[in-house]
Design brief:
52% of the residues lie in helices and 3% in strands. The chain is extended. With 324 residues, it is mainly alpha-helical. The protein is built from 12 helices and 3 strands. A 3-stranded antiparallel β-sheet has the order 1-2-3, with no helix packed on it. The protein has helices at residues 3-13, 109-126, 130-149, 153-168, 177-191, 198-204, 209-223, 236-243, 247-262, 271-285, 292-299, 303-322; strands at 37-40, 45-48, 54-56. One of its GO terms (molecular function) is zinc ion binding.
Amino acid sequence: MSQTTVDTAVEGSTRNGEREHPPERQGAECPECSGSIRHDAEHGERTCTECGLVLDADAIDYGPEWLCLDDEEDRRRVGPPVSSIKHDRGLSTTIGWRDEDAYGNRVSERKRERLRRLRTWNERYSSKNAQERNLKQAFGEIERMASALGLPKPCRETAGVLYRRAVDEDLLPGRSIEAMATACLYAAARQHGTPRTLVAFESVSRVEKLPVQRAYRYLSSELGLRIEPADPIHYLPQYASALEVSDDAERLAREILEAAKAHDLHSGRSPAGLAAAAIYGAARLTNERVTQATVGEETGVSSVTVRNRYRELLDAYEESRDHR
């Protein structure tokens, strides 16, 4: 296909932001019955209107992957989408660290020196002032901690938005970047229903738990964050994965927590502690060898809490079964 043909096809397909397809060739007929040819845009096929013969399948769609619902909206774009977890929203250029060309061959010493200078100047230009350097350091910390805790990308993006709001409202003076970044990620994890305990955050953060608690309370108060108390059930998947219990045990632990909530046993108690106790109780009921000490090590909940809570949870579970 010539370049002129490709350009014409792309131009015809993206006019007014709609999915359009090149017109059929004049005089195109079905080779079987000489019927007219119809283009099925939904399935990417060219078929005969008379006998149903499929001439072409899996045609290339040159249109955009989005729908334009507003005539004044311009959604053309090139490159990756913007990101809230990057200090420059991902709009700058990144020079790779490999001293190789496009074919994987090592470049000469002269070109390596030139690449090093380019990286240095690119690094200086991408963070021109103190605020951008602040954001760059904080977002690096958020990415590192989120990766260690297995938090999804939407959670990281939300943490980036919260940190930007804190910077814009001048909430950082007198507080460490690491503590505020950890507090933002902790809040984002709770908002997305993927909570982690403060003990888990302390294990991956560069600050201790107390500064993170203070930063989170300050952040929540100043930004007006309305975060509901964590549901103990949200902790079950990560605990079940860490303890390698069966699906039956995880399902039973969910039922135990539902019974505990029905008896209002979750009020005023740690959600993480209830989830750990439910997992332990479910493992006992399914005859799986999980000790209280193992549960405490994997979940960060003390074995004393597990021992005291699981009996109450099992009593509530047995009572709920008796009333069925």
